[in-house]
Design a protein that fits this description.
Elements (H helix, E strand, L loop, with lengths): L2 H16 L5 H10 L8 H7 L9 H8 L9 E3 L3 E2 L1 E2 L7 E4 L5 E3 L2 E10 L21 E7 L4 E9 L11 E10 L2 E9 L10 E7 L7 E2 L12 E2 L9 E3 L7 E10 L2 E9 L5 E2 L2 E2 L1 E8 L7 E2 L14 E4 L2 E6 L8 E5 L6 E5 L25 E7 L5 E10 L13
Parallel strand pairs: 3-8
Antiparallel strand pairs: 1-26, 2-26, 4-6, 5-6, 6-7, 7-8, 9-10, 10-11, 11-12, 13-14, 15-16, 16-19, 17-18, 19-20, 21-22, 22-23, 23-24, 25-26
The structure holds 3,6-anhydro-alpha-L-galactopyranose.
Length: 408
């Protein structure tokens, strides 16, 4: 293939990739890759360490298509540390999926899923036993002066009456504070908890972080209703039609006040989920409301991620930042969307903690990842029992050998 044809193709690929993007970094690459001179930026060739620009490997061709981004989003996580007091690991008890941490009256607050006893899976008696550690949970909360030693204060939101949409479990909670009111959004499941059960998202509000919590009568978010199961056996992979990315489950809800509206980010699970070249098919969506209590309308741009797991989002520089972990081809990336919808990769990271509870009281500094300096996560102490742990992270912009002074 002649150099001209290759570069034209490269430009075309780039234009497809970059379609709709407005940032300057991409404009400069676009300019670089257009067939008119300069065809390839010599500085970029040098930066990427390309030996011969007339013999580009597939990897070098891809690298030339990358947007030019700095390393200000790149960070490293340290190992998780155990908490003290009531949130230290307790055998026989599940405490998991911590909410964000808020600080009020000089106290940190966190909410989480809590249940007791082992899980039997779907092979046991699903009417009586727990199918997952997050089955038969209620939402509890704890407070702390220093973020290390926590006092469990009690239950915040309990499962609903038999027959209600949240009668089986309420779990994986997030907190939002807006205009002196407190909002908890969380997952709900109605009995029986079988593998085809569809879960929803509930919401409760209060005038104080200590409650009392007022639950809404109806869920604020439900799965898309456009998938079709094949047959009647309890098999979630057998479908006639998969439906939207969230046709089976809406998980990990998190509401952010944004642009005078309320953006409810969530994880979708699709009926007939497959394992792809990036692992599980998991994507995130957003539903937007004018009022914190809803109604929440799903964005027509959903899904807004093609990878990820638990939602971990925060406002930054007028847009929304998102940590994408665990599943899909873009797992282990930090992403940012100027409009809260169109996310772009800003850094590729490793060892991101699961189920992060962000420290929303962190100072709003210049660094995009300042909110990740410390926060909460959970670990599997055993397959039955999980406990909440503390993570920390630090930005990394230089690589320095031991004993060498950094003379930047
Ligand atoms: C987590 C979350 C949701 C799921 C379960 C508990 O990783 O995605 O909360 O339902 O696992």
């Amino acid at each position: 293939m002649s150099k001209y044809i290759f570069l034209s193709l490269l430009s075309f690929c780039f234009l497809l990739t970059a379609c709709g993007e407005k940032n300057n970094e991409n404009k400069s690459i676009k300019k670089t890759l257009q067939p008119e001179a300069p065809l390839i930026d010599e500085e970029e060739i040098d930066h990427l360490g390309i030996t011969n620009k007339d013999s580009l490997s597939a990897a070098s061709k891809r690298a030339l298509l990358w947007p030019k981004i700095g390393n200000e989003w790149f960070l490293e996580f340290s190992s998780l540390k155990p908490l003290k007091g009531d949130l230290a690991y307790e055998e026989g008890v599940v405490r998991r999926d911590p909410s964000a941490i808020i600080k009020t009256n000089n106290l940190y607050y966190v909410w989480y899923s809590k249940s007791e006893g082992p899980s039997q899976g779907f092979g046991g008696n699903i009417e009586k036993e727990k199918v997952f550690p997050w089955d038969r949970c209620d939402i509890w909360y704890a407070t702390s002066k220093d973020g290390w030693t926590w006092k469990e204060e009690g239950m915040a939101v309990k499962r609903g009456r038999k027959g209600s949409y949240d009668d089986r479990s309420v779990f994986t909670v997030e907190i939002m504070v807006h205009k002196d009111k407190y909002y908890l959004c969380y997952q709900t499941v109605q009995s029986p908890y079988n593998v085809r059960v569809k879960n929803q998202v509930g919401l409760a509000w209060a005038d104080s972080p200590d409650g009392p919590w007022h639950k809404l009568d109806k869920p604020i978010l439900s799965p898309a209703d456009n998938g079709i199961w094949r047959g009647t056996s309890q098999n979630r992979f057998m479908v006639e039609k998969k439906g939207d990315f969230d046709s089976h489950k809406v998980h990990d809800p998190c509401i952010l006040p944004y642009k005078n509206k309320f953006y409810l980010y969530y994880k979708g699970e699709q009926m007939g989920e497959e394992i792809t070249f990036g692992g599980r098919q998991i994507r995130h969506g957003v539903a937007i409301a004018d009022n914190p209590l809803g109604p929440y309308i799903k964005s027509p741009y959903n899904p807004v991620s093609n990878s990820g797991h638990e939602i971990c989002v925060w406002p930054y520089a007028g847009g929304i930042a998102s940590l994408i972990t665990t599943d899909g081809p873009e797992k282990n990336t930090l992403q940012w969307a100027a409009d809260g919808i169109n996310f772009e990769i800003k850094a590729v990271i490793k060892n991101a903690p699961h189920a992060i509870g962000l420290n929303r009281s962190a100072p709003q500094g210049d660094r995009p990842t300042q909110i990740l300096d410390w926060g909460l996560s959970h670990v599997y102490n055993t397959s039955d029992y999980q406990s909440i742990m503390r993570f920390s992270a630090h930005p990394k912009t230089r690589h320095i050998a031991k004993g060498v002074k950094d003379k930047k």
